[in-house]
Amino acid sequence: LTARPSQPVEGSSVTLTCNTRVPLGNLDVSLQFRFFRNGQVLWPGWSSSAELQLPTVWREDTGSYWCEGKTTASRVTRSSRVQIQVQIPVCNVSLETQPPGGQVQKGQRLALVCEVATGTGDITFLWYKGALGLSLETKTQRSLAAKFEIAAVGDSDTGKYYCAADNGYGPSLSELVSVTVRIPVSRPVLTVRAPGAQAEEGDMVELRCEAQSGSPPILYRFYHKNITLGRSSAHAGGGASFNLSLTAEHSGNYSCEADNGLGARRSEAVPLSVTGVPVSNVSLEMRPPRGEVVEGGNLVLLCSVAEGTGDITFSWHREATGTSVGRKIQRSLSAELEVPAVQENDAGRYYCRADNGHGPAQSKVLSVLVRIPVSCPVLTVRAPRDLAVEGDMVELQCEAQKGSPPILYWFYHEDNALGNSSAPFGGEASFNLSVTAEHSGNYSCEADNGLGAQRSEAVPLSISVPVSRPVLTVRMPWAQAVEGHVVELLCEAQRGSPPILYRFYHEGDALGNSLAPSGGGASFNLSLTAEHSGNYSCEANNSLGVQRSEVVSLSIMVPVSRPVFTLNPAVAQIMVGDVLELRCEVQRGSPPILYWFYHEDVILENTSAPFGGGASFNLSLTTEHSGNYSCGADNGLGAQRSEAVSLNVTG
Questions:
Q1: Average pLDDT, stretch 81-93?
Q2: For 152-209, what is each residue's pLDDT tens digit?
Q3: Domain that residue 229 falls in
Q4: Can you say where in the cell this protein is located (predicted)?
Q5: Are residues 176 and 246 in the same domain?
Q6: Of 557, 589, 604, which residue is a domain's last?
Q7: Residue 201 sits in a domain of what CATH number?
Q8: What would the DSSP string read from start to end of 119-175?
Q9: C-alpha distance from residue 36 to each of 1, 30, 61, 535 (Å)
Q10: How far apart are CA 235 and CA 240, in angstroms?
C-alpha cells in the first residue's frame, strides 16, 4: 500500500494505491481490492480498481491503513500497514502576559506566552513589538505554547506586543496586547496657596500636592497635624488639590501623601498661621420669604454676616420693645432663630445683631406679617319646606369662622363641582340650585384663601319626587284569561320617591294594595272567575300626590261544563222510519261552542253554537240505528263528553 501524499494537510485529498506482483504465467488473472483504516473497511465490497481516492481528509482520518487483494480463486493477500498522519495547520494564536493584565512594575520580570489552539509537528513561534513588528525572539519546538521573557522591564518596554506561529503551512498572528510598565511615585511636594500674604479666618486656601514621577492613577491624601482632611485622585498623573475654608483652629503643620499602589510617599511638613476678621454687613432674612408667614407654621429669622471669624454672638430683637427674643453663639457666618407655631401676636418689626469680640453690628429692620388659614367651613342647606321637592330652589351657604380674606368658596355635589363664589372681605357665600331628582345625595363646600383648602363635612339632601302616572300590566299564564287561572296585576310608576303605595281596582272597586318600600313596581295576584271580566286600573301614592293608571280590559274565558244529551221524543223504543231529534247542551261555557253527536263512538254530525246555548241534530231511523248515543262540547278550553243514552229501533 502506498499513500500520496504520505503526510497530507487537513482538508486536502489522499490517493491510496494497492500495488501487486502477478507471476508471468498468470497475467490474465482478474484482481479485486479493498482498503482499511484502523480495522474498518473504507468502501463496502470489493473493487477492481487498485486505487482509492479520499477527497478530503481531517484530523480524525489519522491512523493505520492497509489493503487486501484477491483473485477469482478467492485467495486473499493483505499488504503491510502504513501509518498516515494528517497534518493540522496552526490556528487561533493568542498572546498572554505574566503577570496577567499587562501591568508590570519597573524592574520586575515580564513573560509573553504565545499559544495556539491546534497545530501539528514543529511550530515556530515569533514575538514582535509595536505595530511595525520589531522582532524580539524566535523559537521552534514541538508544543502548542512557547514563552519569551524580559528579566527586568524598564520604561522603554511599555507598548503593544503580538506573536506569530507557523508549522510550515503559513503563519498565523495573535491580536495586539498592551504592556504597561508602572513606576512608583516619587516624594511629593506640598504647596499652600492663600488669597493674600497673610491667611485670615474665612479665607479659602488651596493645598496642592504633586509627585514629579509615578504611574497614574495617583491617590493624594491631605493632612493637618497628621489628621486626614480629605483626598483627591489624579487619574492621568500630575498633582491634585484640596480646598479649605480657614478658621482659627486651622493654624499648624500640613503635609500630603501620594500613592499609586506601588508604595506611598509623604511630603515634608508646611506650616500655616491663621488670623481673625471682624464682623461686617449684618442682614436679617426670614423663611418663608416675602415677609409673610402662615399662622401655626414655623417662622425662621436668619441673621448673617458677610465677614467675621471665630465665635460670633447673634441676637434677635423686636423693634417696638428692643428686648431680645433669642440669642446664639456659634462659629459660622449665619444663625437661625426658629419661632414654632406662629400666632397672630407674633406679627411685627424685627432686627438682629452680630459680635465676634471686635464690636457689634446691626441689621436693617424686617416686617413680619402673620396670615391665618381658613378654618373648616360649615355648609348649611336651606329649602322652602321640610322636605325638598323636585323643582324647589335650594340655597347652599358656606362659611369659615376664621381665615384671612379674600376667601374663595366651592360647592360640591358628590365631589362634582357645582360652582364657586368669592367673599372678598371674609364671611360666608351662597349658591342657589333648582333641584331635580338627580340632585339627591351628599353636598359639601370648600374654603380656600391660598393657605390651604378646607372641606366641610358632607350634608345629605334627599329630593322627593311625586309619582308619575303608573302603568298597569296584566300577566297571564296563557294568551287568554281563563277561569281558574291566577293572573298577576303589576302596577309601576317610572318616577317617584319611595315608599310608594299601590292600590288595585276592578270596575272602581278596590281589590287590594301593595307597598314598594324601595320604589319600583308592586304586584297583586288574582284567581279568576267569570265575574272578573271587566276593566282594571291601579293607583300610585307616595304622599306627594296620587296618580291613576289607564284602564285595562280583561275578558275571562269559561271552559264548557259537561253537556246534557236528550232525545225527542224521549222514549226508549222507537219505530223504523221515525225522525228523532238529538239535542246537546252545556250549562256553562264561553261561546262559540262546537258540538259533536256520536253513535257508538262514531261521529254522526257536528254543529256550532256561535252565541252559546245548545245544538240539535235530526236523524231518520233505520234498524241499524239501535245502540248508545252521546254528544261532546268544546270551546277551545277543553272538551267535555255527555253520558250515553240507549235507543232500540223496531221494524
A1: 90
A2: 998 888 899 999 999 988 899 999 999 988 888 999 999 999 887 788 877 899 999 9
A3: 189-275
A4: Cell membrane
A5: no
A6: 557
A7: 2.60.40.10
A8: --S-EEEEEEETTTTEEEEEEEESSSEEEEEESS--GGG-EEEEEEEESSS--EEPP
A9: 11, 21, 11, 117
A10: 10
